[in-house]
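To the wet lab folks,

You asked to see what we're planning to order before we commit. Fair enough. Below is the target structure as tokens, and below that is the sequence we designed to fit it. If anything looks off to you, flag it before the synthesis order goes out.
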């Protein structure tokens, strides 16, 4: 004869469960809360170091980012560069090809730009030289993206490690070029290229040296959005990203999609190298990429690959970075202070994505379970 008895089981007060779905408004509300919390923590950290009023600290951040016309354009320039790299990573990431090599692709684009500026600065007409710079930088980045794509498609290599290691190869190539191009000899620097003639520099538009960069980046952003959302190739990228087996069953040439997509991704990141070298710094160094290839990964993921959201996320990160540099100078802090603030911001912004995917569920008090014995 069986009998029924009860046992009490302790359940945790709360646990995390995966969300079935979340509205865009609620997701952005969570991100906004994360931003507010990060600003509070940043204020506490900076006040603990500087003993200044938090309002003065944030006033310094605003001043550093948009306090003067020049600072506004610098903020716009840096936002555009970060946005362009994030847009370049989007096709590869949609395909679930983890391109961590944007830094190297930027550097290769920069090498191509600097090389053409040095070799043909006083030979070719300005418009032709600029056109060659744009095309060559894209080809250089395309080649750097093609290498890991071929190995992935042919031998199924780990694209994360492959593209990451190519970043260091690219840095060594830049170092070699600097030794070859250095001016004056023995200075270990290329210096400002064509500083007198400005041959190969982006021309000023809309009263700013960065006007052409604005047009280029916004045009590329729009084209990639149309390509990914409305073209057959964009559809194929999404299918391959969901399942390569499904893509093959549907008759899609997965190898061709991988190679083609990484060529596009590398070309856009290479173009970013031209925007840096010809449009902003007018020189080349191992720090030309400036970590944008890694920060852009965060921008792309946080924005869910939506170009409008990428603009906002890029602007916010650059705004805080430029402001952090200002308060580090204003309050006599070393350069690491701005990195600390940026790190806090990224910590909260990345962490909030967890709460977008998961939610907190509270349990009621002890539950009685009937056990059939």
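Sequence we intend to order:
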């Amino acid at each position: 004869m069986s009998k029924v008895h009860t046992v009490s089981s302790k359940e945790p007060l709360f646990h995390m469960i995966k969300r079935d779905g979340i509205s865009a408004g609620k997701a952005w509300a969570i991100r906004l809360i994360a931003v507010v919390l990060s600003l509070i923590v940043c204020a506490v950290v900076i006040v603990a170091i500087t003993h200044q009023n938090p309002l003065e600290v944030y006033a310094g951040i605003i001043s550093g980012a948009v306090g003067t016309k020049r600072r506004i354009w610098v903020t716009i320039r840096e936002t555009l560069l970060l946005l362009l790299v994030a847009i370049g990573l989007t096709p590869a990431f949609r395909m679930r090809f983890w391109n961590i090599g944007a830094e190297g692709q930027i550097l290769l684009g920069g090498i191509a730009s600097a090389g053409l500026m040095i070799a043909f600065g006083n030979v070719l007409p300005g418009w032709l030289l600029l056109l060659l710079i744009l095309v060559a930088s894209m080809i250089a980045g395309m080649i750097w993206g093609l290498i890991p794509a071929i190995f992935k498609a042919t031998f199924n290599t780990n694209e994360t490690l492959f593209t990451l290691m190519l970043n260091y190869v690219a840095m060594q190539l830049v170092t070699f070029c600097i030794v070859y191009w250095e001016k004056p000899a023995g200075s270990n620097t290329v210096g400002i290229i064509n500083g007198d003639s400005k041959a190969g520099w982006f021309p000023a538009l809309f009263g700013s040296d960065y006007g052409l960069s604005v047009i280029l980046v916004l045009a590329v952003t729009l084209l990639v959005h149309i390509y990914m959302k409305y073209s057959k190739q964009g559809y194929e990228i999404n299918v391959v990203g969901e399942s390569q087996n499904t893509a093959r069953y549907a008759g899609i040439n997965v190898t061709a999609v991988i190679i083609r997509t990484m060529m596009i991704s590398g070309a856009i990141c290479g173009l970013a190298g031209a925007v840096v070298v010809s449009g902003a710094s007018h020189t080349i160094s191992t720090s030309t990429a400036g970590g944008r290839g890694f920060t852009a990964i965060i921008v792309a993921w946080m924005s869910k690959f939506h170009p409008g959201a990428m603009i906002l996320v890029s602007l916010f990160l650059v705004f805080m970075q430029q402001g952090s540099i200002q308060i580090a100078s204003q309050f006599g802090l070393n350069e690491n202070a701005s990195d600390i603030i940026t790190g806090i911001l990224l910590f909260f912004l990345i962490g909030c994505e967890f709460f977008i995917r998961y939610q907190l569920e509270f349990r009621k008090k002890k539950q009685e379970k009937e056990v059939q014995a």
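Structural context that might help your review: Residues 365-373 have pLDDT under 50 and may be disordered. The two ends are 9 Å apart (CA to CA).

Thanks,
Computational group
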